[in-house]
Amino acid sequence: MAKRKAKNYNHHTLVPKHEKLSEKQKNDLLKEFKCNLGELPKLLATDAAIMDMNPKVDDVFKIHRFSRTEGISVFYRVVVDE
Amino acid sequence: MESTLKNYKDKLPIKLLDEIRENTPKGVSSSRVKKIADAVLEEFSSSQVEPGESVGIVSAESLGEPGTQMTLNTFHFAGVAEMNVTMGLPRIIEILDGRKKIATPMMEIYLKSPYNKGKDIKKIAESIKESELKEFIIEVDINIAEINIDVKLNTAKLKEAGIKDQEIIKVVEKLSKNCTAKINDSSLLIKLKGKDQNINELYKIKEKIKSIYISGIKGVSQVLPVRREDEFIIITAGTNLKDILELEFVDDKKTVSNDIYEIESVLGIEAARQAMINEIFKVIETQGLNIDIRHIMLVSDVICNLGKIKGITRYGIVSEKPSVLARASFETPIRHLINASMIGEVDELNSVIENVMLNQPIPVGTGIMKLYSK
Question: What is the mean pLDDT of residues B174-199?
Answer without folding.
Answer: 74
